[in-house]
């Protein structure tokens, strides 16, 4: 067994919290006496190893110590106690433009950062065209970086970090600020580096990415290691805790009410009051999970008798795209309503909406006449009980057959064959 690329032993980091001194009587009167300096324990007793050539994801809530740990691994911070051994050339991308000199051009900053990473001028020159092409900032490469946008900063910083042949790559969530095209390019390159044997430590809030890219996950919670192990297992444990905390914070488990910004239209003889999320036994669901049974109970008020009523519900992704919905008419469910309150259930044996902050619309109609319409009014956060790596908004059903290996090259016609 080779030595691990990174070894962290009983690591702790304490920050001193300094306060501003009151240097005049006026400041004391206006702002009060200065408080005593305190301390903040960012990390305590953290230990783990990163085998060479593996990828480790640091997960946890904001403020759990993930970025502090990365900065210690990159040599930006010194530990208060404990030890860190990093064996290999480290390339780190921690903050926007970290190490950039604003007055220098992008090209000059490539040479500067390459030198900081221990590269010779010849090594940098052999990679500079690849870096420029990866960054994709065009003619701005010869402009001072002080005129760059935040997106241009991160494109150039990431291109330098991953292109200069790193042995150990340390990446914060910083790549999330790039546009969709650049993020895909980043992730593709991370997969290539991983397959080439580069040791990678990254912080990510994308559990799908962590499950797909990482061999191991380290869950940090308020500076302590809560769990270490295979990425899918640790991610499932972490998401379970997050879902439990979200459920505890819900004052009305399962009850979904229209937002304050909801716009209601229609004549008003029937109005939807709320939508309730229930499990398969009819119990309130504090957290809606993808791929699990779900009943949505639509509660309504009826002011006058109405006949031949159609009640519908629609689902809108957090990006604003309407995915689809269902109504009682297309399912052949006749509805006749008398004055009072009531409800109707829409049930699915398996929710195919992927994790996202969905919204629901409701409608009550009769032969084209609208009694009540609430568009995108009801929030429906859908969560995952594990690190789902499926893309898109909904799950597509189907079956794969067994692979068939032929003895000779395939003679099947190509797409271009008439």
Automatic annotation (TrEMBL):
The molecular function terms of the Gene Ontology recorded here are:
ABC-type transporter activity; ATP binding; ATP hydrolysis activity
Membership in a protein family: Belongs to the ABC transporter superfamily.
Taxonomic classification: Bacteria, Bacillati, Actinomycetota, Actinomycetes, Micrococcales
SUPFAM superfamilies, per database record: P-loop containing nucleoside triphosphate hydrolases
Task: Name it.
Answer: ABC transporter
Q: Which Pfam families match?
A: ABC_tran, Wzt_C
* Recorded GO CC terms: membrane
Please verify whether the record's keywords include ATP-binding.
yes
């Amino acid at each position: 067994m080779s030595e691990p690329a990174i070894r962290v032993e009983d690591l702790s980091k304490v920050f001193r919290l300094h306060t501003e001194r009151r240097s005049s009587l006026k400041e004391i009167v206006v702002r009060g006496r200065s408080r005593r300096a305190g301390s903040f324990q960012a990390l305590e007793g953290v230990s783990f190893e990163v085998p060479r050539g593996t990828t480790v994801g640091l997960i946890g809530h904001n403020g759990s110590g993930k970025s502090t740990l990365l900065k210690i691994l990159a040599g930006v911070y010194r530990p208060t106690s404990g030890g860190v051994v990093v064996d290999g050339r480290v390339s780190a991308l921690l903050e926007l433009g970290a190490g950039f000199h604003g007055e220098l051009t992008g090209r000059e900053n490539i040479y500067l950062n390459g030198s900081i990473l221990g590269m010779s001028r010849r090594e940098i020159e052999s990679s500079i065209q690849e870096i420029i092409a990866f960054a994709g900032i065009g003619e701005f490469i010869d402009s001072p970086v002080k005129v760059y946008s935040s997106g241009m900063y991160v494109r150039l910083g990431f291109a330098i970090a991953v292109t200069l042949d790193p042995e150990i790559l340390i990446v914060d969530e910083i790549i999330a600020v790039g546009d969709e095209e650049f993020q895909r390019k980043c992730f593709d390159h991370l997969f290539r580096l991983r397959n080439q044997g580069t040791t990678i430590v990254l912080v990510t809030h994308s559990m799908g990415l962590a499950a797909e890219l990482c061999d191991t996950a380290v869950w940090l919670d308020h500076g302590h290691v809560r769990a270490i192990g295979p990425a899918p297992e640790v991610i499932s444990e972490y998401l379970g805790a997050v879902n439990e905390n979200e459920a505890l914070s819900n004052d009305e488990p399962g009850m979904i009410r229209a937002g304050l910004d909801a716009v209601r239209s229609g004549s008003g003889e029937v109005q939807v009051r709320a939508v309730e999320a229930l499990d398969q036994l009819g119990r309130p669901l504090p957290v809606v999970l993808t791929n699990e049974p779900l009943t949505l109970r639509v509660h309504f008020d009826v002011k006058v008798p109405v006949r031949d009523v159609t009640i519908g519900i629609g689902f809108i992704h957090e990006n604003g795209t309407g995915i689809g919905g269902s109504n009682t008419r297309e399912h052949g469910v006749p509805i006749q309503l008398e004055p009072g309150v009531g409800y109707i259930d829409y049930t699915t044996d398996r929710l195919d909406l992927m994790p996202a902050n969905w919204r629901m619309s409701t409608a009550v109609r009769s032969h084209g006449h609208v009694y009540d319409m609430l568009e995108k009014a009801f929030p429906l956060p859908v969560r995952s009980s594990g690190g789902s790596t499926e893309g898109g908004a909904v799950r597509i059903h189907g079956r794969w057959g067994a692979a068939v290996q032929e003895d000779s090259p395939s003679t099947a016609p190509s797409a271009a064959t008439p």
